[in-house]
Each structure stands twice: as C-alpha cells, then as structure tokens.
Amino acid sequence: MFLCRTELEGALAEEISHTLNPGKPPSITGQGLVIARDLPPSPWPDLIFEQQRIPHAGWIPHEQLKPISDDTFSTLFPPHRPSNPWTLHVLCPSGIQDQQWSRSAKGIGSALLRLAKSMVPEAGPGSYHQPEGDLPPGTRILQVLRVPEGAWFGWGDPSVGVRPYPGGIIRLKFDSRAPSRSYLKLEEAFQRMGREPTTGQWVVDLGAAPGGWTHACLKRGARVQAVDHGPMKIVSELRQNLRIVKSNGITYTPEAHQLPVDWLVADMLIPPGTALGLIKHWLGNHRCRHAVINIKLPQQNPYQAVRPIASWLQGQARGYQWSMKNLHHDRREITLMAIETSG
Ligand SMILES: C[S@@+](CC[C@H](N)C(=O)[O-])C[C@H]1O[C@@H](n2cnc3c(N)ncnc32)[C@H](O)[C@@H]1O
C-alpha cells in the first residue's frame, strides 16, 4: 500500500509497475492510495510519487471497527507483540479529508492506545512513543489508515522505507516574514536532505520572486543572487546579503570565479524538458555543490515526463547523490535534491 497526492495516483501506479515489476498491475483507489500486489521481496527503492508506504498491509472492514473488539485488536497487535519501542500513526489518506473520518481515525487511535495499555503490558508507557517526537532507533510503527469502508493497517519501520512521520508528512511552521507559501517547499527539501545553506555560502535562486526561497536562504546567513524579472519582497533586515539580477534564469550563469556556487535553487514555471536542460547545465558541468530544483508536471502522463530526467541523472549526474520527490508542500510538481559527493 502506497500513499500519495490524490491527483498523482496514476503516476505512482506507473512508477511502481516500471520500478518494482509487481505480479499484478497496481490498483488505484481514488483516495490517495495505490495498492500493489505480488511485489518482489523488499527493500524497495524510495519512489518519486509515494509519500508513505505500508508494506504487507492488512484490511479491517468498517463493521469491525465500531467498537474495536478483542479479536480486531489482536489482528492489529498480532501475537509477536512488540517488545521494541513503538508508535502509532492513525490518519486518513489525502483523498479522505473529511471531518467525520478524521474524527473516526482519532477515536480508533485513542481506543488502540487504551487497549494496548490494558491488554499488552509490555506495550505500555515505557515502550510507546509519541508519533511527532524523536523516535529511538528500532522503533516500530503501527500505521492505521481510515477510509469509509474500513481501515488499512500494517507494522513497519524506516529499514523498509516507512517514514517516521504520520503519512510521511513533516509538519513545518510557516515563517510569517516569508513573502510566499513556496517557502515551505524549500524548508521541506532542506529537512529531507539533512543539509541547508550556512552563513556566508553563495546561493543562486532562479525564478526567485516574490522571495520565499530567497528568504529561507537569507535567514540562514547565506548570500543570495535572486534571478527574476518579477518584484522581490524581502524584509529589510535580510536585504544586506541579497543581490537581485533581472535576467533569464534559464540561461543565467554566474561569473566563472564564483563557480561552483554552494547552492542552486530553482522554482521557475518551465516545462520538464526545459528543466532537464537546466539540470544538465548545472549538474552536468558541476556548477553547484547542492541543488534544489522544482519541476512542474504536465497534466498528461506526469511519470513519462519525469523518466528522461531520471535516466539522465542515473547516467550522467556524476559526483552527486540525488533524489526526486513529490514533497508534501509540492503541488503538481516534484523536487530534485542533489548533494555533491566529490570534487
Ligand atoms: C512559482 S514562482 C517562484 C516562487 C518563489 N520560489 C518563492 O518562493 O517566492 C515562479 C517565478 O519564476 C519566474 N520565472 C519564470 N520563468 C523565468 C525565467 N525564464 N527566468 C527568470 N524567472 C522566471 C516568474 O517570474 C516567477 O516569479
């Protein structure tokens, strides 16, 4: 079971077919879920369009959830009961954002914790951890996904690609000084990369206006060249390290003595083919040490549009460790994140 943005289920199903070669074509529920059967043994690679996964998901029909009987509880907490630390992620998938089902998910969560405490003493306060906190190594995650017809569930942990955040979503706080919501996309990318610009580093921001991404870099003390014809709205206390360049971001290259720049970040409204040209220009010639590049997806065949980019990166992005992801704060977009590994 894979979770994704609702409108990208078809792209994820295609990606699963192409990458994991399942025994049967994956099915799409319309709820932000893709069900893949007869997959080869895990580990499976992190997929571009997945936001979370439930390996070996089980199913409990609606009738068995209200209330949760002892039998249903022992299905969820099977006899090999966790002696490890554990946590619980109960949620509705992206296609079921309805109060009734969110409330029901919450109720299931509380009932499960109550039953676990009384029926499985070793799963009590010592071993249970809050889902939003830092989890100790080896923490097992019970995911329960409420949909109107019942609930999907399964145990997993990061070693099989289960993300340690409910629904795979990192909750980030918006900075009210940032001039656009796009700010959160770059913050999420930094979180995923485990890297961020530091004081004095050089950043080139292509398609920078009104300045959400520039703000994220300036607030960390970096120096930013913001390339855009549109107006920038950066708070005055951060403008000292900002240089605005009214130029075309597709062809813009800093002067030779500035290369490689520490960070290239780009968020222009350009088609995937043009984005590939940009990627070749910057990563193919090692013009940056880190890159975060947002790629807009077409309405038709988004997975097919991404494949040439992935295959170029696989063959040619030497000296970089990279990944592409439909981030939680992305819309119909994916984000390429790259970190220099040599040179
Ligand atoms: C989605 S907005 C960027 C938002 C920005 N990242 C932020 O956080 O506020 C896209 C921007 O790309 C700019 N843009 C599109 N094509 C461009 C090009 N060829 N060169 C420079 N800027 C471009 C547009 O002017 C627009 O300001």
List its salient traits.
four-stranded antiparallel sheet; single chain; 7 helices; Rossmann fold; 2 domains; elongated; binds S-adenosylmethionine; seven-stranded mixed sheet; 343 residues; alpha/beta
Detailed description of the structure:
Helix 6 packs parallel to helix 7. The chain has helices at residues 9-20, 70-76, 99-119, 183-193, 212-218, 272-284, 302-316; strands at 2-3, 27-28, 33-35, 52-53, 58-61, 86-91, 140-147, 150-156, 202-206, 223-227, 242-245, 261-266, 288-296, 320-325, 333-340. With 343 residues, the protein is of the alpha/beta class. It starts with a strand and ends with a strand. The radius of gyration is 22 Å and the shape is elongated. The strands form three sheets. It has a seven-stranded mixed beta sheet, sandwiched between helices. It has a four-stranded antiparallel beta sheet with strand order 2-3-1-4, covered by helices on one side. It is built from seven helices and 15 strands. It folds into two domains: 2-168, VC0802-like, CATH 3.30.2130; 183-340, Vaccinia Virus protein VP39 (Rossmann fold, 3-Layer(aba) Sandwich). The chain binds S-adenosylmethionine.
| Number of individual domains | 2
Strand order of the largest sheet: 11-10-9-12-13-15-14
Main beta sheet strand tally, sense and closure: 7 strands, mixed
Anisotropy-based shape: elongated
CATH-defined architecture of the largest domain: 2-Layer Sandwich
Task: Summarize the topology.
Blueprint: E1 2-3, H1 9-20, E2 27-28, E3 33-35, E4 52-53, E5 58-61, H2 70-76, E6 86-91, H3 99-119, E7 140-147, E8 150-156, H4 183-193, E9 202-206, H5 212-218, E10 223-227, E11 242-245, E12 261-266, H6 272-284, E13 288-296, H7 302-316, E14 320-325, E15 333-340
Parallel strand pairs: 6-7, 9-10, 9-12, 10-11, 12-13
Antiparallel strand pairs: 1-3, 1-4, 2-3, 5-8, 7-8, 13-15, 14-15
The protein binds S-adenosylmethionine (SAM).
